[in-house]
Amino acid sequence: MEDIRIEQPPSDGLDVEFSAGRITGLTVLDAGDEALDLMGARLTVEDAILVGSGGSGISAGEETRLRLHGAVLSGGRAALLVKNASRARMRDVLLYDSEAGLDLRHLSARYTGDARASTKRVHVMGCAARGVSDRPWKPDLPSLKGAPDDDELADLRARVVGIDSWEQLEDGLARIRGEGTP
Fold first, then answer.
1. CA-to-CA separations, 12 to 41, 59, 63, 76, in angstroms, rounded
2. Which of 75, 79, 139, 170 is 20 to 30 Å from 126 at the Cα level?
C-alpha cells in the first residue's frame, strides 16, 4: 500500500492482522487508540508519520515482525509498543511526545519469548522516558539517542516531515495536519 492518510479515527487508524506486505507513505493523525495496530503481521513500514495517538503510535503484538524505516511516531502511552514475542527493527526513526519512546512488554500467558527491538539511528524527543519494559532493560538493546541534531535523521526531517530544522517539528506537524499556513 502507498500514500495512505487517515485523520482522527475514533479507535485504531489501521489494523493489519496476520498479513504480510509493505506500506510506504502512511500518515495517521490523532487516532483514538493506536495509529497502526499489528497482530501476527510481517510488515515493512517506510516514510510514516503516526502522531497524536491516544494509545501507541504503533502497537506490534502477537509475534509480529516489523521493519520500520523513516518514521515519526507519537502516542499517549508509547510511541512504539512491542509485545507478545514480537520483533521490531527500526532505522531512522523519531519517537516523539509520548510517555515512553519504546515500551517492551515480555510477559504473556499465550506467547513465549521476549519482545525485541533493534535500533539504528533512533532518537527520542519529548518523551517522559526513552524506554520502559516489564523486565530489566536488556543490555543488547542499543541506547536510544536523545533529540536529534539537524544533521541527524536529515532525510526524515527534510523529505518525510518537510522541515529544515528539528526545531520546526511542531510547525511541520501542524502543516501536515492542515493547520496554519502551508
1. 16, 10, 19, 13
2. 139
